[in-house]
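Hi F.,

I've been meaning to write this up properly since the lab meeting, where we talked about keeping a consistent format for the predictions we share between groups. The idea is simple: the sequence comes first, exactly as it goes in, then the structure tokens exactly as they come out, then a line or two of notes. No screenshots and no reformatting. I'm using this chain as the first example so we have something concrete to point to.
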Amino acid sequence: MTTPARHHGLDAARALAMMFVLSGHAMVSFTVTPVGWAIQDRAQFLGVDLYAWVVRAFAMPTFFWLAGYFGRALLDGAGFRAFMRNRVTRILAPLAVMLVPVSYALSYLWDWGREVGTRAAVADNMPKLKGSEFEILLGHLWFLYYLLWLSLAAIAIHVLARHVRTRVPAIFLPVVVTTAVLLWLGAMHTDTPLGFVPDVPILVYMGAFFGWGWLVQARPAELARYSRYAWPALALAPVFLAIVIATLYRGLSVVESPPAYAIAASALFSIACIVFLLGACMRYLDARPRPLLQLASRASYWCYILHVPVAVLFQILLYNVPLFGPLKYLVILTATTVICLGVYALGSSRFSPRKTERTQRAVSRINAPQR
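Output, unedited:
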């Protein structure tokens, strides 16, 4: 039997999502709005606030979509044991190893940033970071922690609903669930969870994207439709974004909960961006592998774990350096990217385990078109 080819387009989507996340965090210190970051640079640009909001709206949901897609492929292609082994080695182990050092590094950097530069107080209407009762905080590693919970939930739901068949497009799941969650919260986006007690609304919100990817993996025709609808989705996204910007500009979110239509527009903006990213990558980047995108895709987990402390370090180091803001940002972004990819390349070349024949077969089936 011929081994089905990988979807190089989804590898590219994962790489690009990681680049968006990295570029967004490298830029947070240049925002005008105080967000409780380690340091706020003297060079501030309102456009950075918009970019940070846009990246926040779709980049992490894209990661959850891809995690759901690849997780379903692994479970169906290699079985329960291989799925659980993958969750342990790819998610639980990195989280367990890096949680304490990353948490202490962020704590030190935030204290250092407070000493180096003054930080404006976070406004009352800004979403508050939800801390933990423990000294150790999840920080940006909340993604891995929540992915573990969603993986366990997915197995249970998969077993219970494996004989259920429905013709409803998978995209209806995030449309309904994410809009409902944001309406429940009375907000146009979710907060960043830092504590170890799962925040149920955030878990359900991100679970909708995870479930969306999980369902699409078994429906290759639906993924193919995203390729056709990529540009229409991109055309709709600015319309939804304009509604969100107008709502924020009028200051409705300061004195009261944003209106339902703005909340729905925010949810639909995230979904439209994801459809465009996935569809465009499948349409234009699926034919053959791109070495740089493949490297970034393979390194995405480790880059995600490492990039925030590295980016914040350079933001603090360059705070008093008299450089033009965009140039300073390019230095931070370039240094962070090179260090993260370099650490991954060094580690993978020295410690990469040899794959068994069964693992090779399983990996070859992940992300493969289904007949």
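Notes:
The first helix runs from residue 8 to 27.
Residues 127-134, 353-371 have pLDDT under 50 and may be disordered.

If this format works for you, I'll send the rest the same way.

G.
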